[in-house]
What we know:
Blueprint: H1 6-19, H2 24-29, E1 48-53, E2 56-68, H3 80-89, E3 97-108, E4 111-115, E5 131-133, H4 137-143, E6 153-155, H5 161-164, E7 181-185, H6 186-193, H7 197-200, H8 206-215, E8 222-225, E9 230-232, E10 235-239, E11 248-254, E12 257-261, H9 269-272, H10 286-302, E13 306-308, E14 317-323, E15 326-330
Parallel strand pairs: 4-6, 6-7, 7-8, 12-13
Antiparallel strand pairs: 1-2, 2-3, 2-5, 3-4, 9-10, 10-11, 11-12, 13-14, 14-15
The structure holds zinc ion (ZN).
The site of zinc ion has 7 residues, from helix 5.
Amino acid sequence: xxxxxxxxxxxxxxxxxxxxxxxxxxxxxxxxxxxxxxxxxxxxxxxxxxxxxxxxxxxxxxxxxxxxxxxxxxxxxxxxxxxxxxxxxxxxxxxxxxxxxxxxxxxxxxxxxxxxxxxxxxxxxxxxxxxxxxxxxxxxxxxxxxxxxxxxxxxxxxxxxxxxxxxxxxxxxxxxxxxxxxxxxxxxxxxxxxxxxxxxxxxxxxxxxxxxxxxxxxxxxxxxxxxxxxxxxxxxxxxxxxxxxxxxxxxxxxxxxxxxxxxxxxxxxxxxxxxxxxxxxxxxxxxxxxxxxxxxxxxxxxxxxxxxxxxxxxxxxxxxxxxxxxxxxxx
Length: 331
Ligand SMILES: [Zn+2]
């Protein structure tokens, strides 16, 4: 039904109704919604990609994709046409915004660490025509022969659904990783767990804050960390505010090799690495997000680090180089 127009679908619904003995009048007068669009992006098989950074073993794990319908409000200062052009220039599909979700497991200095937890199959798209698939992380963990119960440490960059819902049981809110220590940025924890927050948030964001406040502070295995400490031997937190109040990136060092686990700093690099000045609707403080993005991308280029990002094109790891007034990401 993918290529059907709305009118064709209404007609075929009427025909189906007739076949089941319903009257045409009933079928046509009922409110008719166009069918949800099917996923267009082929799923990577396998959804696992292994690479080394010095002695550290990194395993990128595919969690799903959000095929976001174009929306003039996505960027304050870039049009849908400019967005499409930037996607096409990077060789990506431009009939929607492809936003993959990729989590990362790191084996470093004898520790097994998960960086962000994906959407847990619980992330809803705001527009019914968007396709939003997540929740493939667990199957890919198993396919990579990683026992989720053996994950000792989980690092969380920020509290958006596509990064933390994988921690929470669907409908039950039960901890999915009860044995792991979950290290979160203190600024992010403080912002989301402030009881006065809910009244200050737009209605659409309130359920997320309620869910966080009713669950996360009760877990004994959540450790908020302030500053830029080494949270696991070989990985330190680096503050990267703007996308959210406490958004944080993870800087991995092994020998002379480095990886910047950049999370949502340059979420879709074809858009906001190439155009660091584009101010996105999902950045809580867009001006601060731009400042952070420029600083971290410049640091990545200057120190010849590898970089990965949650929403980078699969398998989500490569290098950044300067490109005109912006930065290019190359797999
Ligand atoms: Zn994200």
